[in-house]
């Protein structure tokens, strides 16, 4: 398997920590994504490493017994450590405040603390087997204040920091889940829901394990993912992942089912809004995209893996650190090891090796694994780092060796422009709102984010189309068909086509002497009017005479190019036509007499010169009451010429009153 | 037509009128029988064929003499036509030493003055389109083959010639373009490109709607002739069965096939008949340089017609025709209804449903675009115009004035009763307007025409 075949990889800069052993306990905090290495209960040191901060936090604490759970509050302000089943100890990490520990016992009698979660920098939730308790920590007073509590039998709990939701497993079977939502000092209870178990349980005991449940945000929505194992009684073909949508308001609803078509041990990650399912038996993973079209049965949508199953790309552990420089050959890392623990959304931890990785999706290999270009585009457009890959797909489908058919090319263009148009519309309504006087700071008014999926005309021009049209071996028929297809797609989405695309069309047509085609395109206004385009047409006149008429028509329609029209006509020695035109639009009082007389003289047509000369004499008479030219008009030379040809007496006499 | 002619010109009431008519038409080459006694060999084609041999020879000889005689005055431009009291002869030499002569009877009241000339030229062009050059035919099979081809072509062609209904539009030989919005036009482009991709042997494509052109892959000169053939010969032949409801357009298709309205106007009539003949007319294009021979496949669904032209060296099979039918048929049907719908929307928006106030004919020499609000319906046999034939004659006269000079000009004619006829020429464009206003004077007429230009032609550079 070549490297171009793996579409999942571990990040190349993992968080390295001291591996777990009898004297070193390792903890992971999902909220801050921090790894805690606690040596000898903290007495010989605690090292905290996060994915972003390369400077680990190290400190010592007194060994007061075995640490069950250890977490910083948000922004690393307060450290909470659970050592017993009844209490949690706190110590402040705020500069200039007391570092003396303080303790909080759970309020419910006879309850055991299962764990705790920080929901902000000073708010913490205790989860006990009999309910939850929501506290505010007052670091300066070194005490806690109970904000709210709720009694409920709890089997286990799960926290999703992105959604600020805690999920509690209740009832004997454990399959009734009760979500709570936390925000700014409040705790709200969301409607509980039941997870359908694969088979009627034989005995009344805990049937839903927390290992089979995950919570993650996918496309901005919070989902509870349930890994439903294959049951021998039902005739399903394998395990599946059931996605329950957990809205902020309203009931939780079963939405998607991901068909795994295999059985065994699985683990889930969510990367770039894709659900990744790892399968330990085969040491491969598959990905699912719930935005891709699936089979909808009226209530839920069934999805199949987007791509064939592949292993995560083989990984070499860099032998960095204080080891001797000589033995630095990298060691291959055992993938899918049983010591791996996965956390949401994209974290894989190997406690035995002391590494924390983020899982990543590689897009380039997917291009060749997904032959359906329409589906490939749907997939890529939803990914974060998609732009260059999309552009390379476009280039590829236009290349001689990998050429796609026109309907496929059209589909791809339509998908790109659909996304492009959405962005343009959002921009438009933002600008309109700004102009309407809404203030920039209004929370309702947000400048739309331009994601990488917005592929505009200049992207297409620079990376795809201009390169494509330059290729020598390309049939011009295909080149023109592709350009027209792109223009058609833009028009279909009512996007104004940029003139450089029109120029590209014209250039291609001219290169192949397809002037009549060009003429027809212009006739139906496929190439929109613009001054640059009109000038381009003018320059084509020597190859294709009708371009002159086309250009003049275009200038006329622009209605802002009257000066250009006059220049064009004068350059063609159509002095009279130029004069009639400027008179027709009422601009003849402001034109330069000298320019017209020059042009008339060049025609060597004396009668024409006479006519033009007379016209300006009359204009002078009308404007100034005197037919003579003023010195500012610089027409002395023409007056002299007129006298020479027609005689002094031919000059118009001033009307006397 | 007869009724209209009879009502014309009060002063000519006593005179019996004859519409112009074709008296004879022949093609000869003086090189083929230069010696005495062999004159018959010169004649390649003669219509009417019943004419006695000696008279044929005499007429050909006379023409030869006239051409030779006039050549002494103008060696490079020999006479093009000869007008006599009874008839008028037109001479045309399309290829060296090949002469086509047409003799037309004059109407008693001189009316059809200039129209004959271009018609001979079209004839030649259309001949060219379907038969290639004379020389090429000679190379292929000598004089005998050439004669056979001429016989076959003109036998049919002369029937489509209706001199009595020729008018200004025949002089222009223009192309009527179908007005269309940009988006629908782009859809048609997309359709054509896709078809050319899936039917890879197709070399050129043309697209028409309502007998008006939308797209031509052929060069303008070739398209002009093909357009004339389609609109005056091929399409009219197929209108009749459509109106009569015969060969019902919706066919019972094989299961699984989409129903569609597509059918072949040339080629196989019934695709389910395994014996169906896939014979398509052969045409010749780009005769000046590359000289390409092509099969002409005309396929139509509702009002949309597509011409696919494929290299003549490839013989289309029945399988190909079936494939074409299955690919093109459904898509063209959808496209045709799209165009129809869009056209109606545009018409409603522009409000041009109502009878146009102005009667005009427009022609642009650059793209051969023509537009007429005078012709209600133009069929090969009848030209149904809404104005008096005498006015049409004035149009012809103004046009012949325009052809004589290169400058832009404008002619305003006061015709009988309250009619005014205005002809304008601006660059390569010509516009003819017929106005009927009680007691209008020259200035008012000029104003009216300006108004027309401002409403109808404001998007082009048309000087007033």
From TrEMBL, chain A:
Residues 383-631 form the Mic1 domain. It comes from the Eukaryota. GO terms for biological process: regulation of autophagy. SUPFAM superfamilies: WD40 repeat-like. Residues 26-144 form the Regulator of MON1-CCZ1 complex N-terminal domain. GO terms for cellular component: late endosome membrane; lysosomal membrane; Mon1-Ccz1 complex. It holds the Pfam family RMC1_C. InterPro entries: RMC1, RMC1_C, RMC1_N, WD40_repeat_dom_sf. This is Regulator of MON1-CCZ1. It comes from Ailuropoda melanoleuca (Giant panda). The lineage of its organism: Eukaryota, Metazoa, Chordata, Craniata, Vertebrata.
TrEMBL record, chain B:
GO terms for biological process: vesicle-mediated transport. InterPro entries: Ccz1, CCZ1/INTU/HSP4_longin_1, CCZ1/INTU/HSP4_longin_3, CCZ1/INTU_longin_2. Residues 202-328 form the CCZ1/INTU second Longin domain. It holds the Pfam family Intu_longin_1. Residues 354-452 form the CCZ1/INTU/HPS4 third Longin domain. One of its GO terms (cellular component) is Mon1-Ccz1 complex. It comes from the Eukaryota. Residues 23-111 form the CCZ1/INTU/HSP4 first Longin domain. Belongs to the CCZ1 family. PANTHER family: VACUOLAR FUSION PROTEIN CCZ1 HOMOLOG-RELATED (PTHR13056:SF0). This is CCZ1 homolog, vacuolar protein trafficking and biosis associated. The gene is CCZ1.
């Amino acid at each position: 398997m070549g490297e171009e075949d793996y579409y999942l990889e571990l990040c190349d800069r993992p968080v390295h920590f001291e591996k777990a052993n009898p004297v070193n306990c390792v903890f992971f905090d999902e909220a801050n994504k921090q790894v805690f290495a606690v040596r000898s209960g903290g007495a010989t040191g605690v090292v905290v490493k996060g994915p972003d901060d390369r400077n680990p936090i190290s400190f010592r604490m007194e060994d007061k017994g075995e640490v069950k759970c250890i977490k910083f509050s948000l922004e690393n302000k307060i450290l909470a450590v659970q050592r017993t089943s009844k209490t949690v100890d706190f110590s402040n990490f705020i500069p200039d405040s007391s570092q003396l520990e303080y303790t909080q016992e759970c309020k419910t009698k006879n309850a055991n603390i299962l764990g705790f979660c920080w929901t902000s920098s000073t708010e913490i939730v205790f989860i006990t087997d009999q309910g939850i308790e929501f506290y505010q920590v007052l670091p300066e007073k070194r005490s806690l204040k109970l904000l709210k509590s709720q009694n409920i039998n709890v089997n286990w709990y799960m926290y999703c920091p992105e959604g600020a939701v805690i999920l509690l497993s209740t009832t004997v079977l454990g399959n009734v889940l009760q979500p709570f939502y936390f925000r700014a000092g409040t705790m709200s209870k969301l409607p509980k829901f039941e997870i359908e178990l694969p088979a009627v349980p034989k005995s009344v005991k805990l049937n839903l394990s927390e290992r089979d449940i995950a919570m993650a945000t996918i496309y901005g929505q919070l989902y509870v993912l349930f890994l439903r194992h294959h049951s021998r009684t039902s005739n399903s073909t394998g395990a599946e992942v059931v996605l329950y949508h957990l809205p902020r308001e309203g009931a939780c609803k079963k939405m998607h089912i991901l068909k795994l078509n295999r059985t065994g041990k699985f683990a889930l990650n969510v990367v770039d809004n894709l659900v990744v399912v790892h399968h330990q038996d085969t040491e491969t993973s598959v990905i699912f995209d719930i935005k891709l079209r699936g089979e909808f049965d009226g209530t839920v949508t069934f999805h199949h893996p987007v791509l064939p199953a592949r292993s995560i790309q083989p990984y070499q552990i860099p032998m960095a650190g204080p080891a001797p420089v000589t033995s630095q050959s990298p060691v291959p890392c055992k993938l899918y090891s049983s010591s791996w623990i996965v956390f949401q959304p994209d974290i894989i931890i190997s406690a035995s090796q002391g590494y924390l990785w983020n899982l990543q999706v590689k897009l380039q290999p997917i291009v060749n694994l997904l032959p359906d270009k329409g589906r490939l585009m749907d997939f890529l457009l939803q990914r974060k780092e998609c732009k260059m890959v999309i552009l390379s797909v476009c280039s590829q489908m236009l290349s001689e060796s990998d050429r796609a058919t026109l309907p496929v090319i059209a589909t791809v263009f339509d998908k790109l422009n659909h996304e492009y148009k959405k962005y343009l519309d959002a921009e438009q309504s933002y600008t309109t709102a700004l102009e309407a006087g809404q203030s920039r700071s209004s929370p309702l008014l947000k400048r739309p984010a331009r994601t990488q999926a917005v592929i505009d005309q200049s992207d297409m021009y620079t990376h795809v189309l201009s390169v494509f049209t330059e290729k020598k071996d390309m049939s011009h028929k295909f080149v023109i068909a592709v350009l027209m297809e792109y223009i058609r797609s833009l028009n279909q989405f009512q996007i104004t086509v940029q003139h450089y695309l029109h120029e590209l069309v014209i250039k291609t047509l001219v290169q192949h002497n397809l002037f009549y085609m060009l003429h027809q395109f212009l006739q139906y206004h496929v190439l929109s009017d613009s001054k640059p385009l009109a000038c381009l047409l003018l320059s084509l006149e020597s190859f294709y005479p009708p371009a002159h008429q086309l250009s003049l028509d275009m200038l006329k329609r622009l209605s802002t190019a009257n000066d250009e029209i006059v220049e064009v006509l004068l350059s063609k020695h159509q002095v009279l036509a130029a004069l009639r035109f400027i008179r027709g639009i009422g601009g003849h009082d402001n034109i330069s007499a000298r320019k017209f007389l020059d042009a008339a003289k060049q025609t060597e047509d004396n009668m024409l010169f006479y006519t033009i000369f007379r016209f300006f004499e009359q204009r002078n008479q009308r404007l100034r009451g005197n037919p003579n030219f003023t010195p500012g008009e610089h027409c002395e030379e023409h007056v002299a010429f007129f006298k020479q040809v027609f005689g002094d007496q031919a000059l118009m006499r001033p009307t006397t009153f | 037509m007869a009724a209209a002619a009879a009502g014309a010109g009060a002063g000519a009431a006593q005179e019996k009128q004859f519409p112009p008519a074709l008296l004879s038409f022949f093609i000869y080459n003086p090189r083929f029988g230069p010696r005495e006694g062999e004159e018959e060999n010169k004649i390649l084609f003669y219509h009417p064929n019943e004419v006695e041999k000696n008279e044929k020879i005499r007429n050909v000889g006379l023409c030869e003499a006239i051409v030779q005689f006039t050549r002494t005055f103008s060696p490079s431009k020999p006479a093009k036509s000869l007008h006599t009291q009874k008839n008028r002869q037109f001479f045309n030499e399309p290829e060296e030493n090949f002469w086509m002569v047409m003799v037309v009877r004059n109407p008693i009241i001189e009316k059809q003055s200039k129209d004959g000339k271009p018609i001979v030229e079209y004839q030649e062009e259309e001949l060219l389109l379907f038969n290639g050059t004379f020389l090429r035919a000679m190379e292929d099979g000598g004089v005998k083959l050439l004669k056979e081809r001429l016989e076959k072509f003109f036998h049919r062609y002369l029937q489509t010639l209706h001199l009595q209904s020729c008018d200004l539009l025949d002089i222009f030989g223009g192309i009527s373009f179908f007005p269309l919005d940009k988006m629908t036009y782009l859809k048609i482009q997309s359709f054509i490109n896709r078809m050319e991709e899936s039917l890879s042997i197709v070399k050129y494509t043309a697209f028409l709607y309502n007998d008006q052109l939308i797209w031509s892959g052929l060069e303008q000169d070739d398209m002009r002739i093909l357009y004339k053939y389609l609109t005056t010969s091929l399409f009219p032949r197929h209108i009749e069965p459509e109106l009569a409801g015969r060969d019902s357009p919706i066919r019972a298709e094989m299961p699984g096939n989409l129903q569609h309205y597509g059918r072949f106007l040339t080629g196989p009539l019934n695709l389910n008949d395994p014996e169906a003949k896939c014979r398509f007319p052969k045409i010749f294009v780009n005769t000046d340089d590359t000289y390409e021979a092509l099969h002409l496949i005309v396929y139509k669904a509702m009002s949309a017609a597509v011409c696919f032209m494929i290299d003549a060296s490839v013989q289309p099979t029945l399988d190909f025709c079936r494939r074409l039918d299955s690919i093109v048929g459904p898509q063209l049907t959808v496209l045709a209804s799209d165009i129809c719908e869009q056209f109606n929307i545009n018409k409603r928006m522009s409000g041009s449903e109502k009878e146009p106030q102005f009667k005009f004919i427009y022609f642009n020499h650059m793209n051969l675009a023509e537009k007429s609000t005078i012709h209600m319906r133009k069929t090969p046999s009848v030209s149904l115009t809404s104005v008096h034939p005498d006015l049409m004659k004035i149009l012809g006269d103004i046009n012949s004035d325009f052809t004589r000079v290169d400058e832009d000009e404008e002619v305003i004619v006061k015709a009988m009763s309250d009619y005014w006829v205005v002809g304008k020429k601006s660059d390569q464009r010509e516009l003819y307007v017929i106005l009927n206003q009680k007691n209008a004077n020259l200035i008012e007429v000029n104003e009216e025409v300006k108004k027309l230009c401002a409403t109808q032609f404001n998007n082009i550079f048309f000087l007033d």
